[in-house]
Amino acid sequence: MEKDMQYGSDYKFIPATSIASGVGIQVLPDIYSHTIQIVNFILVGEPGSSDYVIVDAGMPGSSEEMIAVCEERFGTDSRPKAILLTHGHFDHVGAIVELVEHWDVPVFAHELEMPFLTGQKSYPEPDPTVEGGMVAKMSPLFPNEPIQLGSHVEKLPADGTVPHLPDFRWIHSPGHAPGHVSFFREKDRALIVGDAFVTVKQESLYKVLTQEQEISGPPRYLTTDWQAAKTSVETLEQLKPSVAVTGHGLPMAGELLEQSLAKLVRDFDQIAIPDYGRYVDKNIH
Hints:
The chain has 285 residues and is an alpha/beta fold. 22% of the residues lie in helices and 18% in strands. The protein has one domain: Metallo-beta-lactamase, Chain A (4-Layer Sandwich), CATH 3.60.15.10. Helix 6 packs antiparallel against helix 7. The longest helix has 13 residues.
């Protein structure tokens, strides 16, 4: 470790009404989503294979659990080819430093996230005044400081390709974070969303705890550009995904996803954009 680092028509999907921390869902044969506290990390690769990647890096203190999940799925001493980040918020990079120290693998993210991943710049502070529930009010406790990955983090290729996932392309989906990206596979229209939209109302502590399924825009207390967030949801809806694996909440698929995503696009201002908050621009309503 260097010192500078401080679903398509054939998918089989088992519906669920809730999922607890420490539980995983087999979304597609090669896509597995595992919940740690309030957030999901995703494994892409066939079970038992030595060729897999991790998307996002969980909560602080979750590295041992993440390593154990990988070893159970891919074998003892297995090692991912890379870690891909949808963005760099604390609940998506919580274990990243420990994971890179353990595996010595590269990390890839959008170039606009680089300042937050190389110690240069903090994210805007979470907004506890935003319309929402208890989690929003707790948000000042969430860290917004940058992490330092040094030379271990690389920019995603400008041509939209995804390292080690040749069937996927990355799609810039900002709003929740400047360099937020989602990952899409055309052949089965599988979408790894990150936080561009989520399937649990992240501001509500009750719904976070019960994982009550409800499509929503990005978590309000950390979203700073609502016009960009709206455009990103419109862009992702146009892909007509068959299954969406989100950063928070349960995977959503089929007709439920199609109808819910269409409704989110149609009623984004009412569903997603808070009535008030530090980062709300009333002109977009």
